[in-house]
Amino acid sequence: MRILVVGGGGREHALCWAIAASPLCEKLWCAPGNAGIAEDAECLDIAADDVDTLVAFAVEQKLDLVVVGPEQPLVLGLVDRLEAKGIKAFGPSAAAARLEGSKGFMKDLCARHGIPTARYGRFTDPQAAKQLARELGAPVVVKADGLAAGKGVTVAESLEEAEAAIEEALVGGRFGAAGHEVVVEEFLEGEEVSFFALCDGTRALPLAGAQDHKRAFDGDQGPNTGGMGAYSPAPALTPALQARVMAEIVEPTVAAMKAEGAPFRGVLFAGLMIAPDGTPRLLEHNVRFGDPECQVLILRLKSDLLPALVAAADGQLRDFDLRWTDEAAIVVVMAAKGYPGAYEKGGEIRGLEQAAQVEGVTLFHAGTTWARDGRLTAAGGRVLGVAALGPTLKEAQARAYQAVERIDWPGGFCRRDIGWRALGG
Ligand code: AMP
Ligand code: GLY
Questions:
Q1: 142 C-alpha vs ligand 1 centroid, how far in Å?
Q2: Which of 93, 108, 141 is the last residue before a domain boundary?
Q3: Looking at residue 144, which CATH number applies to its domain?
């Protein structure tokens, strides 16, 4: 198969790493890729959201499959455009990607189909939005409706903070068109976990659970980020709970999307809150793999990923089976100092070969590039993912941090406590 992966982060490195290892893969491209991906795929100078150029490339190269990593090109309709040209693509149509692209759409779908989630309202009028925030009482959550690069959610500790978030989105235009409408919703308490399932439009095949670390600094302090580390499995997501999540949230979502004429194909990434009494509720749906959650899922997957992606795209997941290792996987993200705010680019990164020699360790690049003089340099906020498998999460964690110690990058930082929720401390 001749395959293109769209995206250039750690998630796409993990996807390329797995796809390149498949005996079914003849030639692999990645757009735009990164320095690590260049070892597994030919990188193309095409941005992940440049739909026209991606479609033209796929047609010209007569690709057999396009695997879309990030949400923007999905919401922009890349998969629809490819399928219109007869090119198979892994990922949802634009209509199905509304599950992530519009929080209001997702909430209304849940309401129509009885999928458990927080109480909410959708608003374009700030006074009405504030009224619901007052009724719900603080803490209360305010969300920009559309894609806002992970910055659209405010968990407001006070009503003043909630009102400010409503004003900023609806009046101040902070998120542009993505914030012309907001969702105001009830704050849910509990343990946050992520669950992933492959979907073929009709069926859902469970993948695995994971837990992310969204704050920049140790002890879950500091600003929200795209994710500073993850591990899988998530002990909080017991097999019994996983079965409930499939039956009460994932399968009803797939059925609802099909019934409403927008069948969901691709990865459904359910962000869940597990209440203290054990009830799972949906915080949000994403329509793609998580980054960095993808890295730990891929490390634990023993089966060939590629046939599973093809089966999902073809509507053929019936009787499909995937094998997983019982080992635990962890990924520690190394980011440029300053991330998620302003950060410096261009610093040299050394020691990756030594780091990769630690038992069980795999390095997934995110924002890296080769300088003209052959040095590996930082080119993004999240720069590297140091991933490790181990017989236990504790051992996987020790391996990952041993590898981190071998990486010489003065411009970078990482959290030192990835895994703490599962390990205690
Ligand atoms: P999102 O960008 O939608 O993933 O939201 C960012 C974070 O906000 C989530 O990971 C949760 O930690 C938190 N969050 C979102 N919705 C709620 C809610 N209804 N109750 C509590 N926390 C929430
Ligand atoms: N790590 C969270 C996300 O990919 O949305």
A1: 9
A2: 93
A3: 3.30.1490.20
Q: Is residue 186 part of a domain?
A: no
Measured CA to CA, the distance from residue 81 to residue 88 in angstroms comes to: 10
Closest atom of ligand 2 to CA, residue 291: 4
Residues whose beta carbon lies within 6 Å of some atom of ligand 2: 212, 226-227, 286, 290-291, 293
Q: Are residues 13 and 83 in the same domain?
A: yes
195 CA to centre of ligand 1 in angstroms:
15
Q: What share of the chain is helix, strand, coil (3-state, %, to 5)?
A: 35, 30, 35
Predicted confidence (pLDDT) per residue in 234-264, tens digit: 999 999 999 999 999 999 999 999 999 999 9
Residues 169 and 214 grouped into a single domain: no
pLDDT tens, residue by residue, 99-148: 999 999 999 999 999 999 999 999 999 999 999 999 999 999 999 999 98
State if pTM tops 0.70. Answer: yes
Tell the residue nearest (CA) to atom 3 of ligand 2.
Answer: 290
How far is ligand 2, taken at its centre, from the CA of residue 291, in Å? Answer: 5
Give the ligand at the shortest distance from the Cα of 152: 1
Q: What are phi and psi of 190, to 5 degrees?
A: 140, -155
